[in-house]
Amino acid sequence: MEGSGFQLAVLLTAGVIAGLWLLARGMGGYRTATRIGDTGTSRIATIAAGEVRVSGRIEAAEVMLISPLQSAPCLYYRSSIVSGDDDLVVGDDRSEERAVGFRIVDETGDIRVFPRGARWDAPTRFDDRTGMFGEEPAGLSRRTGSAIGPTEVDQEAAIAALLTVRPVATDEAEADGSLLSGFSAGSGGRSRHYREARLAPGDEVTIVGRAMPFSDLADPTEADAAYGSGVGTDDPEVAADIAEAREAGLLADDPEEAWGNAAIPGFGIGRPVRAPELDPEADALRLGTAEDAARTERRFAIVPGALVLASAPDVPLLIAHGMPGVAAGRNQGTFMVGLLGAVLAIGSAMALAILVSGGFGS
Questions:
Q1: In terms of Cα–Cα distance, which of 127, 124, 122, 121 is closest to 82?
Q2: What is the pTM of this model?
Q3: Tens of pLDDT, residues 36-75
Q4: Which of 14, 30, 151, 295 has the fewest CB atoms within 10 Å, i.e. is most exposed?
Q5: Is 104:92 a contact under the CB 8 Å cutoff?
Q6: CA 81/CA 87 separation, integer angstroms
Q7: CA separation (Å) from 14 to 21, 125, 144, 178?
Q8: Does the CA dihedral 145-285-100-245 come out positive or negative?
Q9: Mean pLDDT across the chain, nearest whole number?
Q10: C-beta separation of 237 from 252 below 8 A
């Protein structure tokens, strides 16, 4: 095959691959649109146990996340850094996906959402790349602290944070050692493509999943956090380790014994409802007021019989940005693009077969 024929073969092969990728993405959009459209919306105040669809505005529950690429408070993010020109990966691409539990609110009430195992359809909030001379995009604001942040920061805490001098992150490691670990400012001569999809408090979403009593969750702590590469709670090695620790008497039955100060409501946000045990040289914490205690109780305590939204083996959780009509329409559009991808893949495959067989007069 001559040089021009080889180049054409490469282009046709790329067409097949791109078409199949679009088709797979389109089928995912079709399944999402169908699932949203086939389930009627339930009002939160009158919701019943079983598969439901709810829509409304999301609010933070216990904690929020801080996104890696823009340091934005959020409840879910999917971030990626791809190195190389035109997204040709050169071996050090990174991605990170994370979520925490939250509440969804409509005009009738609110319900708690446990996102473990959820499928997310979130909008891309940041999509940019390094400049011609390796300069970072203006919208990039790399996270330099913890990935977890409080839902409320009082004035004193905000002032203290502003006055705290923190070391600048280096090439060796970022403060949280995750997505940004090893990536410093400046691209070292290689292009980088940054993407970040997020859902933040105040966003409107549509959720399809199972409403179940809180007491039916096997492990609320595990269900309350979602990691893109997390280990399932049914992992046999994890289960064996837990069983061994329980048999050896290493697991505490009492939360206060196991967690210490962390078991005190409000301790994690600097407003404990009762005095914690601290090192004598540590700064004393101001105790929370009765109002703080009530707000903390509402945020952290869920009665066993209260209905929550979570994934079940037969009903995986779907969380899509936008109200039902918007979310379903967006995914229908993705499906239509997928059909065009199928046409591209078929056409490219037929042309490639003709080229290989010498049908183009090679």
A1: 127
A2: 0.68
A3: 877 778 899 999 999 999 999 999 987 889 999 999 999 9
A4: 14
A5: no
A6: 10
A7: 11, 28, 39, 33
A8: positive
A9: 77
A10: no
